[in-house]
């Protein structure tokens, strides 16, 4: 998203987070802009029954946690490293200065936030009205477009676990597994070595 050199010019520091490390916690006030150098990060929270709800999954060169930073509101979710991850942290004041002095970067940030808002609106409608097959395919197609999933001779490798698909679509894991198998039978998806391709 924002070139590493530009972030470092404004004082960003690289920090390594081990798998399952908490980057920030729900309820805390934001102090940094975060951008992934390598690895994978999820933002999630839990309902009263202890079920995890994933708000978003973020990959290399993507940022996360900006809305509360702009609004000066507490984080509505936790950010957790899904795997060992290297992240750039830029203080809020320096981030705002960077945006003021680099309008083209501001436009990129706005586009990124608009994309996420659009996705949340689409998925909210999907979760309230659509059948599991439709929800799962919508999520996968969004992942292909937004997360740049890799394509090979089998199609696009869907880089979500069954659990993540469930958490992102509001479905139980068992339902996700049945749905993926049904979609494979219809020829919409392929399962090769337990990996799903679209």
Tell me about this structure:
The chain is an alpha+beta fold. The protein has 2 domains: 4-118, Jelly Rolls (Sandwich), CATH 2.60.120.10; 131-197, Winged helix-like DNA-binding domain superfamily/Winged helix DNA-binding domain (Arc Repressor Mutant, subunit A). 43% of the residues lie in helices and 26% in strands. The chain has 7 helices and 12 strands. It has helices spanning 4-9, 66-71, 92-101, 103-129, 132-146, 162-169, 173-185; strands spanning 13-17, 22-24, 32-38, 41-46, 52-58, 63-64, 78-81, 85-91, 151-152, 155-156, 190-192, 195-197. Strands 1-8-3-6 form a 4-stranded antiparallel β-sheet. Strands 2-7-4-5 form a 4-stranded antiparallel β-sheet. Strand 4 (41-46) and strand 5 (52-58) form a beta hairpin.
Using brief descriptors, characterize the structure shown:
2 domains, 4-stranded antiparallel beta sheet, 26% strand, 43% helix, single chain, Jelly Rolls, alpha+beta, 198 residues, Arc Repressor Mutant, subunit A
């Amino acid at each position: 998203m924002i070139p590493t050199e530009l972030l470092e010019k404004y004082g960003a520091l690289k920090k390594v987070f081990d798998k399952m490390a908490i980057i920030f916690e729900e309820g805390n006030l934001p102090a940094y802009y975060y951008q992934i150098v390598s690895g994978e990060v999820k933002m999630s929270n839990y309902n009263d029954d202890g079920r995890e709800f994933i708000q978003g999954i973020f990959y290399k060169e993507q940022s996360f946690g900006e809305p509360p930073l702009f609004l000066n509101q507490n984080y509505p979710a936790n950010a957790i490293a899904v795997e060992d991850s290297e992240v750039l942290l830029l203080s809020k004041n320096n981030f705002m200065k960077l945006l003021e002095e680099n309008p083209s970067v501001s436009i990129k940030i706005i586009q990124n936030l608009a994309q996420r808002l659009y996705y949340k609106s689409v998925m909210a409608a999907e979760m309230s009205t659509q059948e599991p097959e439709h929800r799962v395919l919508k999520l996968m197609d969004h992942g292909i477009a937004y997360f740049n999933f890799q394509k090979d001779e089998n199609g696009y490798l869907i880089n979500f676990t069954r659990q993540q698909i469930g958490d992102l679509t509001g479905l139980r894991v068992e339902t996700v597994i049945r749905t993926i198998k049904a979609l494979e039978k219809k020829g919409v998806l392929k399962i090769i070595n337990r990996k799903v391709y679209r």
